[in-house]
UniProtKB/TrEMBL annotation, chain A:
Organism the protein comes from: Herbidospora solisilvae
Gene3D superfamilies tied to this protein: P-loop containing nucleotide triphosphate hydrolases
Domain of life: Bacteria
Pfam families per the UniProt record, alphabetical: AAA_5
Entry-linked SMART domains: AAA
Entries under InterPro entries matching the protein: AAA+_ATPase, ATPase_dyneun-rel_AAA, CbbQ/NirQ/NorQ/GpvN, ClpA/B, P-loop_NTPase
Residues in AAA+ ATPase domain copies: 35-194
Lineage start: Bacteria, Bacillati, Actinomycetota, Actinomycetes, Streptosporangiales
Protein name (database record): AAA domain-containing protein
Molecular function (Gene Ontology), one example: ATP binding
Family: Belongs to the CbbQ/NirQ/NorQ/GpvN family.
Automatic annotation (TrEMBL), chain B:
Superkingdom per UniProt: Bacteria
InterPro entries: UCP010256 (IPR011195), Uncharacterised_CoxE (IPR008912)
Native species: Herbidospora solisilvae
Protein name: VWA domain-containing protein
Length: 280, 438
């Protein structure tokens, strides 16, 4: 199937789901669809990597299958597992059952296998790939290049319909060259003030355009400071919600000083911002 | 198109971007699906398939502009206006959106007007400096700020300075395009692309680059910390973990098929850092100190000492949560590290042994950061030898390229005979050192 007809169509359809893209996002999403290659989205926390996968699923009307990676994730959690309890019961119930305990009914599907066997269009989101151990990358290689899984007792299962794969990473470690080579790469960074303003306007209905503009500019200024943790888009959006709840119409020094905790979560960062922006 | 594609991929490889054969093919496949006339889509299609590291994007963009120059605007309008009018036009543009087409069109027209310089008899070349000088955008800032004082001014200032940087980048890009047009693309490829930030020399960085590197510290420290802790986890396992083994045996009907072992307790070294804080290595020392402190979770104890010609402890300035820039300023003004202001390694080592020898124990790792340039003072190698014998590990990181060791007043190999000395010129080498050694 074709996922998107052109980069500009990707922009429109993502926009309908409330996700504002730019040239880089639209082009790589479009290419990942036509080339049937996984898309690796890398960037700091809170710039909308996971959200992108959800938006793609929504825009194309597909199912979203999500595999959350963490340290210690293994094949049994990512791919498939045999339901040994059921197998044991079957053997106890019927002594001749030794041959048929490795059948479909004893197989527990995990996200990767589920995405491959699904006959509906599916977006497979492999979230925070960098948190998983290096061995998991090896496991992903076979799946991502050939879209097939080998289960020794059942044989090789090939994807009926190739899923749209999105991998995300916060770059806490460098992913292996082999994995990167098989993916299209999208670096998501903090947006330009213009785009961030539009995001705030789209995400927070009811906020005044001037306030959104000021928020976006302030966030950009904060990111230019040398902070431990720069404010993410999600935090700017939270900030907008906060201002709306407080009923503030302008973002002046006093308001910023009072609500700085929404965007900066380190004490030293707050002090630095207060000093540099002249809040006190 | 094929020739241009291949030439472009070659140029990328030449400037140090690792583009594999498969990735080149991917890019070619991608070209079949997109509208080649749309330059922005073309750029992103190449970026998605070829550039797999954010540090490489800057160099990629420079090369892309050379290989696929924009031709849509036609020949730029010839502008003979009075420079003052041009300045006010620029001021107007700096208030707006730098992504607007007028913005780059104006930059190109200005290069046409001011950028041509006679480079020799009968030869001319293009430079961005005369363009920037003629328009001097920096002097426009004051007029553009509008409201004075407080937050609005900060925001306006930030916006104008970013736009000025964007304008200067547009001018530089257009200058490169013109040079490439006249002298051929291949000539300019090498000189146009700067190495990515993690490969730039500590000793030659500009202030802006240093700030950029400092911003990399926390991500870098986090990356190193994860990798180090993974290494610990993967190392030899220790004793049998009885509880987990029995839990796991339930899966196999009470037969312990899979044994689980307790991970060995990670070895957390104590670290003593002795760093040269003289001006010649200032950027390097700052960066390394910050990284050491950012890596604190890997070490049970970090103690830092700084020196120029005498030595003092600076640990207290880098307390958790302290602001890094303040810490550095306080360190240079408050700590007693300089008597005459000329580096003297021999004297420093002697003072360190006299005053602070107690911090060195068989559990410590000693890390010395410096260029080993001692202004022709006696090096006191014997003292260093005694110090290294007291500790578990000792390393010296030298920010100078290896081929400059022992030139002039450097006594690098004298010290290298008693302590392993590593060349550490950029972030990349530093990360590699920490990963290999710690």
């Amino acid at each position: 199937m074709t996922w998107f007809a052109s980069p500009s169509e990707a922009v429109t359809r993502l926009r309908q789901t409330g996700y504002l893209s730019d040239d880089a996002i639209a082009t790589s999403v479009f290419l990942a669809g036509v080339l049937q290659k996984p898309l690796l989205a890398e960037g700091p926390a809170g710039v909308g990597k996971t959200q992108l996968a959800k938006a793609i699923a929504e825009a194309t009307g597909s199912d979203l299958v999500r595999l959350q990676c963490y340290e210690g994730l293994d094949e049994a959690r990512a791919l498939y597992e045999w339901n040994y309890k059921k197998q044991l019961l079957r053997i106890q119930a019927d002594d001749d059952a030794w041959d048929d305990i490795f059948a479909e009914e004893f197989l527990l599907e995990r996200p990767l296998l589920k995405a491959i066997r699904s006959d509906r269009p599916t977006v497979l989101l492999i979230d925070e790939t960098d948190k998983a151990d290096v061995e998991v990358e090896g496991l992903l290689l076979e799946i991502l290049s050939d879209f097939q899984v080998t289960i020794p007792e059942l044989g090789t299962i090939t994807a009926a319909r190739r899923p749209f794969v999105v991998l995300t990473s916060n770059a806490t470690r460098e992913l292996s060259e082999a994995l990167k080579r098989r993916c299209l790469y999208l670096h998501l960074d903090y947006p330009t003030p213009e785009r961030e303003r539009d995001i705030v306007l789209a995400q927070v209905p009811g906020i005044a355009e001037t306030v959104a503009e000021q928020l976006a500019r302030t966030a950009a200024t904060l990111r230019a400071l040398e902070l431990k943790k720069s404010p993410s888009i999600a935090e700017t959006v939270d900030w907008a919600h906060t201002l709306l709840a407080l009923g503030r119409e302008v973002l002046d020094e006093r308001t910023v000083a009072e609500t700085l905790g929404v965007v900066l979560k380190h004490h030293s960062d707050q002090q630095r911002a207060a000093k540099e922006l002249g809040l006190r | 198109m094929i020739d241009r594609h291949i030439g472009f991929v070659h140029a990328l490889r030449e400037t140090g971007l690792p583009v594999s054969l498969a990735e080149g093919l991917d890019a070619a496949h991608a070209l079949r699906h997109i509208d080649l006339a749309d330059r922005r889509t073309l750029r992103e299609a190449y970026a998605a398939t070829l550039v797999k590291r954010p540090q490489h994007r800057e160099g990629f963009d420079v090369l892309f502009d050379l290989w696929f120059p924009s031709t849509t605007q036609g020949p730029p309008k010839h502008r003979d206006d009075d420079p003052e009018d041009l300045r006010s036009e620029l001021a107007e543009l700096l208030r707006g959106d730098p992504a607007a087409p007028e913005f780059s069109a104006f930059a190109q027209a200005m290069v046409e007007r001011f950028g041509r310089v006679q480079a020799g008899p009968g030869r001319q070349s293009w430079f961005s400096y005369p363009v920037i000088r003629a328009l001097s955008p920096q002097t426009l800032i004051a007029g553009l700020l509008g409201e004075r004082g407080g937050l609005p001014e900060k925001l306006a200032r930030r916006r104008v300075t970013t736009n000025i940087a964007a304008f200067e980048a547009e001018v530089a890009a257009d200058v490169r395009r013109r040079i490439a047009e006249e002298q051929g693309r291949e000539r300019i490829t090498r000189s146009a692309v700067r190495p990515p930030i993690d490969r730039r020399d500590f000793l030659r960085v500009t202030k802006a680059e240093l700030a950029e590197m400092r911003r990399e510290i926390h991500p870098l420290a986090r990356r190193l910390a994860t990798r180090l802790s993974m290494k610990h986890k993967k190392g030899d396992r220790g004793r049998l973990d009885f509880r987990r083994t029995v839990r796991a045996s339930l899966q196999s009907g009470g037969v312990p098929l899979i044994t689980h072992l307790k991970p060995r307790r990670p070895h957390k070294p104590e670290l003593v850092v002795l760093t040269d804080a003289s001006d010649s290595v200032a950027g390097f020392a700052q960066f390394t100190l910050l990284l050491t402190f950012a890596l604190r979770e890997q070490f049970t104890k970090v103690r830092a000492f700084a020196f120029v010609d005498t030595v003092d402890e600076i640990t207290k300035y880098f307390a958790p949560g302290a602001d890094v820039l303040d810490a550095i300023t306080r360190m240079t003004t408050e700590a007693d590290i300089s008597r005459f202001g000329r580096t003297d390694y021999g004297h420093v080592l002697k003072t360190f042994e006299e005053r602070h020898a107690s911090v060195l124990t068989p559990k410590t790792s000693l890390l010395i950061l410096g260029d080993a340039r001692s202004n022709y003072q006696p090096p006191n190698t014997e003292t260093l030898k005694r110090l290294t014998e007291k500790v578990r590990h000792a390393y010296w990181l030298n920010p100078e390229p290896r081929n400059q060791w022992d030139t002039g007043d450097s006594v690098a190999s004298g010290y290298a005979a008693v302590i392993p000395m590593h060349e550490c010129r950029n972030v990349h080498q530093l990360a590699a050192f920490i990963e290999d050694v710690v």
